[in-house]
Amino acid sequence: MPLPVIECKTQVAAVRRLTAEILEVDLAMREPAEFTFEAGQWVSVPLGPKTVRAYTITSTPASRSQITLCADVTPGGTGSRWFRALAPGQVVEFKGPTGGFVFNRADPRRPLFVAEEIGIVPIRSILWDLYQTGFGRPATLIYWGRDPSWLAYDGEFRLLARRYPPFEYLPVVREAVGGWQGEKGEAPDLVERTVGSVAGLIAYVSGGGQMINKVRQVLMAKGMERKAVKWEKFW
Q1: What domain count does the chain have?
Q2: In this structure, are residues 112 and 28 in contact, taking their beta carbons and an 8 Å threshold?
Q3: Secondary structure letter of residue 107 according to DSSP
């Protein structure tokens, strides 16, 4: 049963710059004191009478008294300017939780996660939630960025792969700069090269619409059913 959407009031506890253009903000719950959501969901923040922006929760459901949002502020629009201006102590109101890009633990299929840059946010929440709560089963993440500086959570996933061996992490970049040691190319190409049989596989793909469509085409060409590819479109 879906969780009810509620109105919340929070206060900015901290702001962090993960990369030059990707920011995180911690929001301490005020009204209500706790917020319940599923990993992968997002909230709606009103920025004006007719302006609302959606931000995906990057923290896990284990933290109910404080949630963390993450955003790419490159576009420079209304939402980007608002996110850049956030500062400790500021009041932020939102409605949530919303969204169906969530993992079904009862599904026995092996998950493949594919993320493009800021599209990693819901998958970051899902993966940490799974492995911190005893999931224990194999899963693979393919995480793409135009260059290494766009892989905001690269270090975290390398740690996750060391801590939980059933988790396989495959970062890939278009431009291998700064002594990059890893895959080079595009996400759909890496899916093509690394995914053999799609039997018993379910995919969660998050990022731009073009990438999502290409990954879906690759997997369907290997025999995967369309409905076995779950997706979250960021742009």
Answers
A1: 2
A2: no
A3: -
216 and 117 part of one domain: yes
User: pLDDT by residue (tens digit) across 63-112?
Assistant: 999 999 999 999 889 999 999 999 999 999 999 999 999 999 999 999 99
56 and 77: one domain? yes
Do 50 and 119 share a structural domain?
Answer: no
Under 8 Å between Cβ of 112 and 204: yes
Please state, in angstroms and rounded to a whole number, the distance separating the CA atoms of residues 143 and 223: 23
Both 94 and 196 in one domain: the answer is no
Element (H, E) at 54: strand 51-56
Give me the helix-helix angle, 187-194 and 209-221, nearest 10°.
20
pTM across the whole model: 0.96
The secondary structure of the chain in percent helix, strand, coil, rounded to multiples of 5, reads 25, 35, 40
Host domain of residue 93? 6-98
